[in-house]
Amino acid sequence: MSGPLSHIRILDLSRIMAGPWSAQILADLGADVIKVERPEVGDDTRSWGPPFLKDPDGGASKESGYFLSVNRGKRSVALDLATPEGQETVRALAAQCDVVLENFKTGALKRYGLAYDDLKTVKPDLIYCSITGFGQDGPKSENAAYDFMIQAMGGLMSVTGERDDEHGGGPQKVGVPIVDIMTGMYATIGILAALARRRETGEGEYIDVAMLDVQVAFLANQAMNYLVSGNPPVRNGNKHPNIQPQDVFKCRDGYLVLAVGNDGQFRKFCEVITRPDLADDERFASNAQRVSNLPALLAIIREALLTDDLAVWLAKLDAATVPCGPINTIPMVFEEAQVKHRQMLRHLPHPVSGTVPQVVSPLRLRNAPLSFDRAPPLLGQHTDEVLRQLGIERH
Question: Which residues are designated catalytic?
């Protein structure tokens, strides 16, 4: 492995999405990530299908698409943490790791003698990151959580979807497990910060990351809109709450996303639709005026864009440097010339299927380039290799 974290070893006791997402980011950055899984069963997401990866004969394997999306670059070690042998082996592994990452329910690992206070006795400068639904304290600290329920509890679904009085109106979740993903991102940031501090102080760290905290944190402008105005944000479909025109518009043969971000772009847009007068109209001359007079503006734009095809508008708006884009399906995303140029889709060698597709890290480091050499592991694929490498005997 290469990359800026090639000197770091991670003991990944997490499963499902948030913790594994963090560990995959660290693996992409070059860290040696040892993923501990239950014997015979493994990570819960191994069975979360279909779809499952196909073998060379076209038959379904036991490797789900979900698991394959979040476990690249890791080595799998099969251990039963409920047994004294498994617990002893985890302690021996932790003694040779820089970071432990776990997402067990609050207090669960303490019963196994694998909590932070237990493991720092064998590795005093250990960085230990715990991911839970609600954190290590508080009235819900012992409750389980999943992405969907946190999107609801944390307010995201109250601002996602069409208004109740519109067709298809009502609360909607985001189409990917965004709370899990953002929790993994925040966990990674915390781990990297703790590693940087340890280099200066020699001290380890305990990091407590809660999914609900993360969701509240990334309410971002929607939260501040409420805190500043006192008005609760509402679902408003694809319309941006603060910047206009930003919405989905129907063309003659398809749909266009328009993302005008400032007055200069709006003026260029008006020229493209042959309505330069709109840029000087007192109702629309500034962003604040456009937001205040949005219904009138939208009616004009909708009428204008219906007069021509999607490809024509995309070409004209691109030429005028007005931010816009088509609404691609996921297959179309991987056919985008820019996505292909950036090699976001790679195929890695895999022992079951020959190769496995992977959507790789978006990070590009010039002086410590990332490499993608290790496919998501089979269950227990590296147990003997890891224990032998680290000089750990199994009893």
Answer: 180
